[in-house]
Write a structure and sequence with these properties.
The chain has 74 residues and is mainly β. Helix content is 9%, strand content 38%. Strands 1, 2, 3, 4, 5 and 6 form a six-stranded mixed beta sheet that branches.
Length: 74
Amino acid sequence: MSEASITLQVNGESFNCLPETPLPQVLEQMGLNPRLVAVEYNGEILHRQYWEETKVKARDRLEIVTIVGGGVFS
């Protein structure tokens, strides 16, 4: 990452990306399929309709739950 990168907390671990990256792109950078996850953004469940307009900032906190066949895996 360039010097302009920011650090997020994702499921309790640090993750670096560029500031103002839309949430779906952050998920893709993490290797996740945005259609198969639920996201809590800074302590609140973020409805999918707001994902594209949600741009991450330094120290944002994400909790991501991935849906897998047969159940849920986080």
